[in-house]
Target: DNA-binding transcriptional ArsR family regulator
Amino acid sequence: MATTEGQELAAWARMLADSTRATVCLALIDGRAWTATELAQLAKVSRPTISEHLNVLVDGGLLTEVRQGRHRYVRLAGPETAELLEELAALAPRSTEVATSLAAASKRDAFARARTCYDHFAGKLGVALTDTMTERGLLDWSEGVAITSKGLRWLDELGIVVDSHRGRPAVRSCLDVTERRPHLAGAVGAALCRHALGHGWVTRIPGGRALRVSGAVAELGLPDGTVRELRSRV
Amino acid sequence: MATTEGQELAAWARMLADSTRATVCLALIDGRAWTATELAQLAKVSRPTISEHLNVLVDGGLLTEVRQGRHRYVRLAGPETAELLEELAALAPRSTEVATSLAAASKRDAFARARTCYDHFAGKLGVALTDTMTERGLLDWSEGVAITSKGLRWLDELGIVVDSHRGRPAVRSCLDVTERRPHLAGAVGAALCRHALGHGWVTRIPGGRALRVSGAVAELGLPDGTVRELRSRV
DNA sequence: GGGACGCTTCGGCTGGGGCCGAACTGTGGG
DNA sequence: CCCACAGTTCGGCCCCAGCCGAAGCGTCCC
Model:
């Protein structure tokens, strides 16, 4: 007998139904490739254990792996996967955190201010950049979202190369979890993020997806006030 | 120690990680309230078993229940839940169905043509209705989606009452799983669906979410050609 | 070649989750 | 008042998934 729709959904959900695997997947939303040992440390389990978990996730199509020498690198299978995980993580929170430490609060602040969502910008930074690009006529939202010829010229002037392989759409809208408004995703979103990271306009804050924003981020055309706000309080 | 984000996500996913529970949730996407016994029959498990599963889902916030006399009615907690399930079910399909029976094919056809997505229309019908409303200036997509004053007047003329309680947005865009284009959701989408069902313009095909479309659906302003297409092949 | 290192396989332990039948509770109807 | 019926609780069964330590495999580097 054919597998029913319910069985398929259950099989899929089962991949995330273990806290070790869920932790791994959430960590991978940063879009980078992690080694098995790194993930074992993160999830606080032994290497044999993480090895099995990664097998499950790769076999299930949630992750892809690249073997390089004696290393096993895994990453999320694609942007759609990351977006779905973001949504799930946002919808799951029945955590009624009452007393929060100062450290946790400032961490959450940094997360809300600027972070990566898989391979593009999110948080206040992501939304502000999207807004600015729209105001400057670089994006057109009349029918979904599209990049204008002016937008393409702008990318060119910045020296940003967009590789839109495998039919990935150039631009795509992605709902921001903290801002509840759309930010820019797609190949262009990824290219902008890669460019800014490569030039040190933003840098990753270790241990999470949060970003530290430097003044040079103004190169992306953001208003001075916005840049100042994004940089305040470290 | 506080529960980590990974544990929360895992706890949430665990609700769907059982094929019986997953089957139940998918059945409930039709937006109706089902009794425990009905669901037990559907999922082919005993009544004690379904009772426990429903406890899990209600406690987890995925379902809400109403007790009426000796009956226990459950339904999905809300439209967002339904939409998330739709997305998950659409992303999960690693089913490589090769040989499909004629019955299954015609069933899938009916499903793609017209169905409910929780409490609003989906499939070709949902997308066509959304397009028509947009062309006639009843919806405005310049910034997200909104209903125009002309749209409100149209609803009034049809005698459709929109109850937008608990701050549910009047209109909302929901990605159609089969058409891969947005269709109308939100309180207005629900009201249109309820109205059409109530007047017999569409009727449910038993055993699923698919709808049978009558010629009277033209009352919603759909072009003749579209109506004919939606009605063809039963 | 040999040792360090990243990862995997294997065996065995353990807990928890899903399932049912039987018995129980509570509601509704004649 | 008694029976039919919806749903629940209880006890017990079984299976599987997650975990680890020990041992094995393959790669890199000196």
Q: What stands out?
A: Residues 47-59 of chain A form the longest helix (13 residues). Residues 35-37, 47-48, 50-52, 55, 69-72 of chain A lie near DNA strand C (CB under 10 Å from a C1'). Chain A is about 45% helix and 15% strand. Chain A has two domains: 5-82, 101-231.
